[in-house]
C-alpha cells in the first residue's frame, strides 16, 4: 500500500512539474508573439512613411522643376516628339 502511494505521489509531482513547465513555455511564446506583432506594426508604419516619401520624391511637378532648374532641360517642340509603338 505504501509503495502505491509513493508511486502515485511521484506521478503527481511529475505531472505538476510538467504543468508548470508547459505554462512557463506558453507565457514565453506569447511574449515572443507580442514582440513580433509590435515589430510588424512598426514595419507597417515605416512602410507607409516610405511610400509617402516615394510619392513625394516622384511627383511629376517636382521632377519637371528639377529637370528645368538644375539640368537645364526643356520640353521638346510638338513636331519633334516621336511615338514608338511596341511591336
Question: How would you describe this structure to a colleague?
Answer:
It is built from two helices and no strands. It has one domain (2-71). The mean pLDDT is 94. 76% of the residues lie in helices and 0% in strands. The chain has helices spanning 2-57, 60-69. The chain has 87 residues and is mostly helical.
The biggest beta sheet is recorded as:
none
Output mean pLDDT: 94
**Strand composition percent:** under 5%
Helix and strand string, N-terminal first?
A: HH
| Percentage of residues assigned to helices | over 70%
Please provide the count of β strands.
0
Shape: rod-shaped
How large is the count of helical segments?
2
Uncertain spans:
none
Structural class: mainly alpha
Total of domains:
1
Give the end-to-end Cα distance, rounded to a whole number of Å.
Answer: 94 Å
Rg estimate, integer Å: 34 Å
Amino acid at each position: 500500500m505504501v509503495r502505491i502511494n509513493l508511486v502515485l505521489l511521484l506521478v503527481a509531482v511529475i505531472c505538476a512539474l510538467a504543468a508548470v513547465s508547459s505554462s512557463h513555455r506558453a507565457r514565453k511564446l506569447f511574449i515572443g508573439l507580442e514582440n513580433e506583432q509590435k515589430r510588424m506594426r512598426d514595419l507597417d508604419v515605416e512602410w507607409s512613411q516610405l511610400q509617402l516619401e516615394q510619392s513625394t520624391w516622384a511627383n511629376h511637378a517636382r521632377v519637371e522643376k528639377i529637370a528645368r532648374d538644375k539640368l537645364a532641360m526643356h520640353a521638346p517642340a510638338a513636331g519633334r516628339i516621336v511615338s514608338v509603338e511596341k511591336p
